[in-house]
Design a protein that fits this description.
Blueprint lengths: L22 H11 L1 E5 L1 H9 L4 E6 L4 H5 L8 E3 L2 H8 L7 E6 L6 H5 L4 E5 L5 H13 L4 E4 L9 H6 L9 E3 L5 H8 L3 E5 L6 E2 H7 L4 E5 L8 H4 L4 E4 L11 H11 L10
Parallel strand pairs: 2-3, 5-6, 5-10, 6-7, 8-10, 8-11, 9-11
Antiparallel strand pairs: 1-4, 2-4
Helix pairs in contact: 6-11
């Protein structure tokens, strides 16, 4: 389809892009409509490389060339001035382009875990920036998959996708249907389930890593209170990052990076 330049702030064709700053509304509508937003040419390219299907693209004129060659020819491409993009979305689209993407079906937990050796499990993290940063750490530091709890923020929310630099498309993930039963399912699949937590019986992360495990599921808790009591009752081991300077813990996204670095060689490959 040729680029469509005849669009304005009230154009009904832009319904997917309207009022993106209303987080509560988007949490409800995006899964309902089966869509998510990819922002910027690099992120759109990663979404397409992962096999995801674009519904349409909205961009400013100076970004048209960078996105037009990425998407399939039949994809509607709407072009409008920056002021119109901001009026429709509710924010300044600094990367110049948004794509409304079809939301892919999520795999079953059993399928996700089948070939994995290191899985990150996120319980109740509600900040989309933290979720995106955890995915980026998972991608960059060798995690095979991510599992999010039913109360965790949506990894495909626009802010999560942007902060992750599109790595939410790179790392296989799913949302647990049963919680904390998903941890029992991972244990039954042969994972040592380690919960990052400040508990009296927690072992140092480096000691846990040195013990050697065939497969590890690293469980991270919410920003304020950490892992819930229910989750801690379903882990094999509570682990902690040794700290100095009177600081007891790190932000959950920073903690994920430290822990994944420590665990990068902690699992043993399956026999041939």
């Amino acid at each position: 389809m040729s680029p469509q330049f005849d669009v304005g702030p009230d154009d009904p064709r832009l319904a997917d892009y309207r009022d993106l700053t209303d987080v509560a509304l988007r949490r409800r509508l995006e899964p309902e409509r089966g869509l998510y937003m990819a922002e910027g040419a690099k992120v759109i390219a990663r979404a397409l490389a992962a096999g995801h299907t674009p519904r349409s693209v909205l961009c400013s004129p100076r970004w048209l060339e960078s996105v037009e060659g990425l998407v399939p020819p039949a994809t509607p491409v709407f072009v409008a001035p920056d002021a119109v993009l901001e009026s429709v979305t509710g924010f300044a689209v600094h990367r110049g382009a948004l794509a409304a993407m079809e939301r892919p079906a999520l795999p079953a937990l059993s399928e996700l875990a089948r070939e994995a050796r290191l899985i990150v499990v996120i319980e109740g993290v509600v900040d989309h920036t933290n979720v995106g940063a955890i995915f980026r750490s998972a991608a960059g530091l060798g995690a095979d998959a991510v599992v999010v709890s039913p109360t965790c923020a949506d990894p495909l929310y626009r802010r999560s996708v942007k902060v992750s630099m599109g790595t939410v498309f790179q790392v296989p993930w799913t949302r647990a249907e049963s919680w904390p039963g998903a941890l029992d399912e991972l244990r039954a699949a042969g994972f040592a389930v380690a919960g990052l937590a400040l508990t009296p019986d927690a072992v140092a992360l480096d000691a846990f890593a040195a013990a050697g495990h065939a497969r590890v599921a690293l469980v991270l808790g919410t920003e304020g209170d950490g892992l819930t009591r229910a989750a801690l009752e379903h882990v094999d081991t509570a682990v902690t990052i040794p700290m100095r300077g009177g600081v007891d813990s790190l932000n959950v996204a920073a903690a994920s990076a430290v822990a994944l670095w420590e665990l990068r060689d902690a699992t043993t490959p399956p026999p041939p």
